[in-house]
């Protein structure tokens, strides 16, 4: 496969490398993802994260495995293993459905390579389209609050919600960005803050519990988030804490927008109640670990509830910004996502 470079993925000498997002922003480490087990471990540890990027990384690895001579049967096994690695992010399933179709042809090696490359290029274009569709919704001198990380680290392009914010900033429409830390793994504090700083966009980091006070003080003009799955009724699964922000925004009459590619839509999932929610390790809440070592602040043996995502009901969402354009609550009520392909 030809050399490829995105913010978080790299192919050199027919080897897939991933940027370790757990080490950012202090270190930029590129780690090999040469086997299915290696990539699954990276995905589980959130060294690879972001719904679009997870799907793209799995597609690229399968294409490389095909080129390296893996049998069709073994490729099917690899695909099934990758598919099970993250149950909530539907982009992974959608991408792998396309890779599976390519795998079932006679010229499957070339077909899988072409499909993986096509998915990368499509994602870049999807990000650009989302940014252009969402920017008109950003008012002049906006103070925007965002959650988790939805930029180039999570996609092959400029990002989803963060792509809109960046494009609006380039047009002079963004005054300030509030960056929620995003517990428990701090993707906002570590990743979004880093991306915004790199772009020179004015931002301030806040703890997740500060959002309500900021809204009450009139310091938030809009909330922009991404999505890991959009159900047929418009409900959205996203990083835990998104639902809280939607409730706060609704109470304070602050617009709440979801930006995502059409590949995030799951028209077969009737509502958010049917979206599987991944439970993550207790250690993410009981303490912290990093290059400095490990610290535990909770009592030994404490029972932990640690869902990775929550579901925001469609009734709390002001608009869904897709690569195909903006979707209104009225359109959702009329069945827009039920008929989406």
Biggest sheet strand line-up: 7-6-5-8-11-16-17
Q: Work out the number of β strands.
A: 17
Overall structural class, as computed from helix and strand content, comes to alpha/beta
Q: In percent, how much strand structure appears in the residues? A: 15-25%
* Mean model confidence by pLDDT: 95
Helix content: 25-40%
The number of helical segments is: 11
**Elements, N to C (H/E):** EEEEHHHHHEHEHEHEEEHEEHEEEEEH
Silhouette: globular
Biggest β-sheet description: 7 strands, mixed
Report low-confidence residues grouped into runs of 5 or more.
none
Radius of gyration: 19 Å
Distance between the termini: 29 Å
Could you characterize the architecture of this molecule?
With 341 residues, this protein is of the alpha/beta class. Helix content is 37%, strand content 19%. The protein contains eleven helices and 17 strands. The protein has helices spanning 36-44, 51-67, 72-83, 90-103, 108-134, 161-170, 187-199, 211-216, 242-251, 283-286, 329-333, and strands at 4-5, 9-12, 15-19, 30-32, 142-146, 174-180, 203-206, 222-225, 229-231, 236-239, 256-259, 265-266, 287-290, 293-296, 309-312, 319-322, 325-327. The chain has a seven-stranded mixed sheet with strand order 7-6-5-8-11-16-17, sandwiched between helices. Strands 1-2-3-4 form a four-stranded antiparallel sheet, covered by helices on one side. Strand 9 (229-231) and strand 10 (236-239) form a beta hairpin. Helix 2 (51-67) packs antiparallel against helix 3 and helix 4 packs antiparallel against helix 5 (108-134). It is globular and about 60 Å long. The two termini are 29 Å apart.
């Amino acid at each position: 496969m030809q050399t490829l470079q995105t913010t978080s993925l790299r192919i050199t000498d027919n080897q897939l490398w991933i940027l370790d997002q757990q080490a950012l922003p202090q270190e930029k480490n590129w780690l090999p993802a040469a086997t299915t087990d290696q990539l699954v471990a990276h995905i589980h540890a959130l060294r690879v994260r972001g719904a679009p990027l997870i799907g793209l990384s799995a597609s690229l690895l399968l294409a490389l495995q095909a080129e390296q001579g893996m049998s069709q049967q073994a490729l099917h096994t690899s695909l099934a293993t990758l598919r099970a690695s993250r149950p909530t992010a539907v982009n992974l399933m959608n991408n792998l459905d396309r890779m599976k179709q390519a795998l079932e042809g006679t010229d499957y090696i070339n077909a899988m390579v072409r499909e993986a490359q096509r998915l990368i290029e499509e994602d870049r274009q999807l990000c650009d389209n989302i940014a252009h569709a969402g920017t008109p919704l950003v008012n002049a001198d906006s103070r925007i609050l965002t959650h988790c990380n939805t930029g180039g680290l999570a996609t092959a392009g400029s990002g989803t919600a963060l792509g809109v914010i960046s494009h609006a900033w380039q047009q002079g429409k963004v005054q300030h960005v509030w960056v929620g830390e995003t517990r428990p793994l701090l993707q906002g504090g570590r990743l979004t803050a880093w991306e915004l700083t790199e772009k020179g966009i004015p931002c301030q980091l806040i703890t997740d519990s500060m959002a309500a006070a900021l809204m009450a003080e009139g310091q938030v003009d809009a909330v922009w988030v991404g999505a890991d799955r959009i159900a047929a009724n418009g409900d959205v699964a996203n990083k835990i804490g998104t639902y809280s922000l939607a409730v706060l925004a609704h109470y304070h009459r602050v617009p709440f927008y979801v930006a995502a590619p059409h590949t995030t839509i799951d028209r077969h999932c009737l509502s958010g109640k049917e979206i599987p929610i991944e439970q993550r390790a207790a250690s993410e809440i009981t303490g912290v670990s990093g290059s400095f070592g490990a610290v535990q602040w909770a009592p030994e043996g404490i029972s932990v509830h640690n869902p990775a995502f929550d579901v925001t009901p469609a009734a709390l969402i002001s608009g869904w910004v897709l690569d195909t354009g903006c979707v209104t609550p009225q359109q959702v009520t009329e069945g827009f996502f039920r008929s989406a392909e």
